[in-house]
Every structure is written in structure tokens, then in C-alpha cells.
């Protein structure tokens, strides 16, 4: 028998696509209500996964998807940080 490692899948809140956890970025709201980008995927709090491409980030911003999912206000700085990460990922 071969031992295959199970790869965790997560759903992008903007596109609804199931992808490998490592292909997505996690945005987390802490108990104090602070929203941040979690690159490690291990911070405590309510999390939402988002595909790291400009279209998904703009869709989430336009439709206010992250704010609705996390039940918190999302600053423009979070979206800017996500867009910068998407540009780095693209290169």
C-alpha cells in the first residue's frame, strides 16, 4: 500500500472554486475584530480563503464578500496588500 498525503482543499470565497490550500491566501479576523492577511494559515480567528489573482481580489472588493464573510469592516490596506501579493505571485 502506498501512503499518499491528503492535500487539504479550501473554497475561494470570491469565485467559489475548490483549490489546494497552498494556492489560496487566508484573511483572518481575530477575536478583537482586527482583520489581517495570514500567510502562514495558522492564526487564530475566523478565516476566509481567497485566490491570489487580481480578478478575484477586485471581485471580493466590489461585492464586499470578505466583509460579509468575516462580519467585519475591511480596510483598503488589506486589499492593497493582497494585490501586491498577487503581483509578486505572478512574477
Automatic annotation (TrEMBL):
Q: Where is the YlxR domain?
A: 10-82
Give the InterPro entries listed for this entry: YlxR, YlxR-like_sf, YlxR_dom
Taxonomically, the superkingdom here is Bacteria
Please give the SUPFAM superfamilies that the UniProt record associates with this protein.
YlxR-like (SSF64376)
Under NCBIfam families, the record lists:
RNA_bind_RnpM
**Record protein name field:** YlxR family protein
Supply the source organism for this entry: Metabacillus arenae
Amino acid at each position: 500500500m502506498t501512503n499518499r498525503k491528503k492535500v487539504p482543499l479550501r473554497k475561494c470565497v470570491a469565485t467559489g472554486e475548490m483549490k489546494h490550500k497552498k494556492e489560496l491566501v487566508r484573511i483572518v479576523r481575530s477575536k478583537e475584530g482586527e482583520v489581517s492577511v495570514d500567510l502562514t494559515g495558522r492564526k487564530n480567528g475566523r478565516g476566509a480563503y481567497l485566490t491570489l489573482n487580481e480578478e478575484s481580489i477586485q471581485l471580493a472588493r466590489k461585492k464586499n464578500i470578505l466583509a460579509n464573510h468575516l462580519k467585519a469592516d475591511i480596510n483598503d490596506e488589506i486589499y492593497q496588500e493582497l494585490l501586491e501579493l498577487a503581483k509578486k505571485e505572478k512574477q
